[in-house]
Amino acid sequence: MSNQAVIGDEGQEGEERTHGLPWIAIGVGAIAVVAAFALAYTHGGLATGANTSGFNPQYAISGVLVGVLVGLTGVGGGSLMTPLLVLLFGFHPATAVGTDLLYASGTKSVGTLVHGANKTVDWTVTLRLALGSIPATILTVAVLYWLHLNGDAVSKVISTVLGFALVLTAVTLLFRKKLYDYAASRNFDPSEQTTRVLTVTLGAALGVLITLSSVGAGAIGVTVLIFLYPKLPLAKIVGSDIAHAVPLTLIAGVGHLALGSVDPSLLGSLLVGSIPGIIFGSQLTSRIPERVLRPILAGTLAVVGTKLVI
Question: Are 141 and 259 spatial neighbours (Cβ–Cβ below 8 Å)?
Answer without folding.
Answer: yes
